[in-house]
Every structure is written in structure tokens, then in C-alpha cells.
Amino acid sequence: MRLLVVEDEPDLAEAIARGLRRDGYAVDVALKASDAELKLRSAGYDLVCLDWNLPDGSGLQLCRELISGELPTLEGERPRILMLTARDDIEARVAGLDAGADDYLVKPFAFAELSARVRALLRRESATDPVLRVGPLTLDQPRFQATRDGEPLELTAKEFSLLHYFMANPGIVMSQEHLLEHVWDEMTDPLTNVVRVTVSNLRKKLGDPALITTVPGRGYKLEED
To answer: Is 131-222 assigned to CATH 1.10.10.10?
Structure first.
């Protein structure tokens, strides 16, 4: 999953990004509303951690533009929005949620709570259980554990993230470009074969029979059965 952290305090932005990367997400950072708009137009994000007060605009207005479609996203689907702000009054919370935010977290907060809210928002579409199960595969993101038929899989952080994305979208064919947008961050060179190599390594670790298949000319999919 690919996340965007929009926060004008560089140290806090980097601390949040660092923690989310440890959780296995691909994370980009924007320190201004204008930077966030550019990134949202050019990359596919699954969730945005959005600060209310930004030096060149309002996170609340950015949220409204995402919800209304005034700010178009790369794939036409808006990301989940977790509003971050020091405003803890009821009126501000109501304003944030009415603007379209999916959740609202008041600063200062413990990173463990932020992490839990991110997980909850990302699984809202597909499941209520934090543990994903597809065929013989089980993935427990909070514990960073994956198994096949009960046997643990020794995966790198990126392989774990890739498997998580496949399991969140079983049976769906995804191109290399789509996977690059959602599992890797902006620092990745799009001209490399990193997606193909990582998919190949993940396939090997998942064992036989193969669970990730290639659809010629279109991409890859995780078989549901």
C-alpha cells in the first residue's frame, strides 16, 4: 500500500513516514499543499495522512477537493483520508468529517494509535478482520507474519507489502505500473525491473503450486482458490 504524509513540520513528517515504512508501507512526504496536489495527480495513493494547517493552504480544503473530484487523482479513485490536527474541539472534528475525512486524529498522538487507524482505514473496503486470508495464504499485518498452509513464510519487507496488496485484491489483474504505484514510493526508478524481480522472488517463496500467475500483456494476479 502507498501512503502520502502531508505535514508541514519536517521532523514530524519524517517520523510518521519512518514509522509507517517500518509497518511495510511505501510512503511519500509533502510539506505543502501545492506539493501534495502534484503528488496526488501523479501517483496512486491508498491513504493520505493530512495535516489541517499547511503553509500555503488548508488541509481541510484539500480534503474537500479530493472528495468532490475537483482534484483528480491518477487512477480516478480517491484515497482514504486520515486528518491530523491539533484542533481538538468538537466543531473542528465535525468540520473535518463533514469535509469527507474518513477519520480524525488529534495531535499529539501515539504512533501506535496512528498505525492502528491506518490499518483500520485500509482494510475497511475489503474486510473487518486485520488478518487477510486467501486460499492457503494468511497474512497478519500487525504482527508482520505470513503463512502458507500454516507454514511461516520468510519474506522481506517489500515482499510482505507486495503480498499484502495482492491479498487485498485477490483475482484482480494488476499491471507492473499499477503495482509500482501502490507498493513502491516515489524514489523508485520506474524504468527498472524491480516489480518483475520482486514478484518472481515472492512466487518462489510462496512455493508450488504457483499462486501468483502472469496474464500475458496485462500483468499479474493472485489466484483466489
So the answer is: yes
